[in-house]
Design a protein that fits this description.
The structure holds two protein chains of two kinds.
Chain A lengths: L9 E2 L1 H7 L5 E7 L4 H4 L6 E4 L15 H10 L7 E5 L1 H16 L5 E4 L2 H7 L29 H9 L4 E4 L3 H5 L22 E2 L15 H9 L9 E4 L4 H13 L5 E3 L3 H5 L21
Parallel strand pairs in A: 1-5, 2-3, 2-4, 4-5, 6-7, 6-8, 8-9
Chain B lengths: L3 E10 L2 E10 L2 E8 L5 E7 L2 H16 L8
Antiparallel strand pairs in B: 1-2, 2-3, 3-4
Classes of the chains: A alpha/beta, B alpha+beta.
């Protein structure tokens, strides 16, 4: 992990095994499948449900500052707690949680490299005990909206070539062949992608064991599509969680300083009346090696 | 307790590649099926044996994948 721009943003499964119960550390499991935690989790870990605890359940939005402070407080997290996030699907929603924690200024938050997949595959200890942490005092800052793109910013970016746009969905979603990942509900009226976006599926950043690829491999992957940090980058997917995974890769593993996550993503764009849409498979980028 | 007998294999259901990951925790076997691309979990089941957990996951995955509509582009 040493070659990453910010290796301090990752910890290994072994580190977690050694430190999960340290008083200054809080390990949190954030899964797509919110039932996973109950079958067994990292001993000492608590869980956040993305459907109810990491979003505003009335309007479509991330947590408000006060909601975020309440979640941290109820989770026994104070401003100086080291928070380690992990989850299923190679940390999709763990990255989503980290993105929100960044927006609200938490200084010390990391991902467990490889997520739940690696922990299980390594045959590590799991527990079904659910910790009940004592409430802590927490004061958030922000939100830092430079980490987030809203619809009007994406529309403005589309007018020029000021930004690199990265669609991290599967090639079939990008082309418009399917409207949602196979087996999941369709959440949009139209298929395709935002014009000029590059299709770099999130999973290309990962090894088979769920860990992130090396810095050199990631540079080649994104650089080959013209995403090299010279322009601000906007990432998007369907609802914003896969794109927060790629946001993490670009911001912390490659060190690009202007990366934002368009969490409205295709669920917003693909339902928008009159929005420009391109269909069809991705074309090779001129920067791609033959 | 530790996770035991973790194994993964790829199969195809209705033309879609599916990854099955199964393992034992305590007395139960669990199986998770995900669509290989993009890697989203579509079924998560349990059973007294690996075979039972996998068969439940395959049945559920088949049901959900069967609803996925491919469009001409």
């Amino acid at each position: 992990m040493a070659d990453y721009a910010h290796p301090e943003m990752l910890v290994s499964t072994e580190w977690v095994a050694q430190h999960a119960k340290d008083p200054s550390v809080r390990v949190v499991e954030v899964d797509v499948d919110t039932n996973s935690y109950q079958e067994g989790h990292v001993p000492g870990a608590i869980a956040w449900a993305w459907t109810t605890q990491l979003c505003d359940t009335t309007r479509r939005d991330i947590l408000s500052k006060s909601q975020f402070e309440k979640l941290m407080s109820n989770s026994g997290i104070s401003n100086d707690t080291t928070v380690v996030l992990y989850g299923d699907n190679n940390n999709w929603f763990a990255a989503w949680a980290l993105w929100q924690m960044n927006m609200y200024g938490h200084k010390n938050v990391k991902l467990m490299n490889g997520g739940r997949k690696k922990w299980l595959a390594e045959g590590r200890e799991v527990s079904t005990d659910v910790p009940k942490p004592a409430a802590a005092t927490y004061h958030a800052s922000g939100p830092d909206n430079s980490l987030r793109s809203f619809l009007d910013q994406v529309q403005a970016a589309l007018q020029g070539s000021s930004h690199a746009m990265v669609d991290v969905r599967s090639p079939q979603e990008f082309s418009g062949e399917i409207l949602a990942p196979p087996g999941l509900p369709e959440t949009c009226q139209r298929g395709g992608h935002i014009p000029h976006a590059r299709n770099i599926p999130w999973g290309k950043a990962c090894n088979e064991d769920g860990t992130f690829k090396s810095a050199d491999q990631l540079k080649a992957l994104y650089g080959g599509e013209g995403v090299d940090g010279s322009k601000p980058v906007i990432t998007y997917c369907r609802i914003g969680e896969r794109s927060s995974h790629t946001w993490f890769v670009l911001k912390y593993l490659l060190g690009y300083d202007r990366v934002s996550n368009y969490d409205g993503s295709w669920t917003e764009w693909g339902n928008l009346v009159g929005a420009p849409v391109e269909r069809g498979a991705a074309l090779a980028h001129p920067a791609a090696k033959a | 307790m530790n996770v035991e007998y973790h194994a993964e294999r790829k199969i195809e259901i209705d033309g879609w590649p599916v990854n099955l990951a199964s393992y034992r925790i305590g007395e139960m076997f669990y199986c998770r099926a995900d669509n290989v691309s993009p890697g989203a979990g579509i079924a998560h089941t349990q059973g007294a044996t690996r075979e039972e957990a996998e068969q439940k996951a395959i049945a559920r995955a088949k049901e959900l994948l069967g609803r996925t509509r491919r469009r001409e582009i």
